[in-house]
């Protein structure tokens, strides 16, 4: 077989996925004209026809037959190019979708058996089951020392809760002590912060003056306000607590109104 008159194709310019140079396999290439795989013979594409069903002289030959291939790359270089092309194609490929089965519907709440959390509740549930199971007509019901599956489960649950109850009580007590300690620390910290703020926010007179001003004092009936001491006689008279009798006359009546005594009923 003579090579065609076309210029030789360089193997480095052919896509690596269109060339097979694996060791132990027959070297082959994709024909650039008919896009089909054909073996290499003496570094040439073996003669082939366009229509594979028609053999002989009647079938036209493919123009890519006897195309010379220039093997300017080694098997290792072709393998590296093949790996690079495969990684690129994998990155372009869309993620495969995994269809998960539809989960089974949840059991209705009305049909759920509540799990006991205390030994008393577990014991009550166990006794209720024994009473119902012994009165039933099932073959594997609870009789004597024999217990059914549900009875055995309730008995094991009661034993487990009874065994772990002291540890749970101890954890509750420890947590309560820790809560009290945290509360005490918090109140101590707040008290220290209040004292420091009180000193920093005091006026020019200092904390002593602030405490004196904020002190609640008991005033007598005839006492006069300290802020108005030394004032006019009218202010002292107004601030004086007086006892009005039943037949007393108001001092604040209008002088133009005819004199009339307003008796105040006791």
Structure characterization notes:
The N and C termini lie far apart (146 Å). Mean pLDDT is 76; it is low at 241-255 and 257-266. This protein has helices at residues 75-92, 119-135, 149-200, 207-213, 233-239, and strands spanning 9-10, 19-20, 28-30, 37-39, 69-70. The protein is mostly helical and 266 residues long. Helix content is 38%, strand content 5%. Helix 2 (119-135) packs antiparallel against helix 3 (149-200). It has a 3-stranded antiparallel beta sheet with strand order 2-3-4, with no helix packed on it. It contains 5 helices and 5 strands.
Task: Identify the notable features of this structure and list them briefly.
disordered C terminus; 3-stranded antiparallel sheet; 266 residues; 5% strand; mainly alpha; single chain
How many beta strands in the DSSP annotation?
Answer: 5
Low-pLDDT stretches: 241-255, 257-266
* Mean pLDDT, all residues: 76
Given the helix and strand composition, which structural class is it?
A: mainly alpha
Helix content: 25-40%
Largest pleated sheet? 3 strands, antiparallel
Termini separation comes to 146 Å
The DSSP helix count reads: 5
């Amino acid at each position: 077989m003579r090579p065609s008159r076309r210029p030789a194709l360089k193997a480095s310019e052919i896509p690596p996925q269109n060339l097979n140079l694996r060791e132990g396999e027959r070297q082959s290439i994709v024909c650039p004209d008919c896009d089909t795989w054909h073996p290499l013979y003496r570094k040439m594409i073996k003669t082939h026809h366009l229509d594979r069903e028609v053999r002989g002289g009647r079938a036209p030959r493919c123009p890519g037959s006897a195309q010379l291939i220039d093997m300017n790359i080694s098997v290792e270089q072709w393998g590296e190019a093949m790996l690079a092309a495969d990684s690129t194609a994998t990155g372009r490929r869309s993620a495969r979708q995994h269809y998960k089965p539809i989960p089974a519907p949840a059991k209705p709440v009305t049909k759920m058996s509540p799990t006991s959390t205390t030994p008393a509740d577990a014991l009550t549930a166990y006794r209720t089951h024994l009473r119902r199971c012994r009165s039933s007509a099932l073959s594997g019901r609870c009789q004597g020392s024999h217990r059914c599956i549900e009875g055995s489960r309730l008995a094991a649950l009661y034993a487990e809760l009874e065994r772990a109850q002291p540890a749970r009580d101890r954890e509750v007590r420890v947590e309560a002590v820790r809560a009290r300690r945290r509360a005490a620390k918090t109140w101590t910290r707040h008290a220290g912060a209040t004292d420091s703020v009180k000193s920093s926010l005091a006026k020019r007179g200092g904390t002593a003056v602030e405490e004196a001003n904020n002190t609640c004092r008991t005033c007598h009936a005839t006492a006069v306000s300290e802020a108005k001491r030394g004032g006019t006689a009218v202010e002292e008279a107004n601030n004086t607590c007086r006892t009005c009798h039943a037949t007393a006359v108001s001092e604040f009546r209008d002088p133009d109104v005819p004199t009339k005594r307003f008796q105040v009923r006791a």
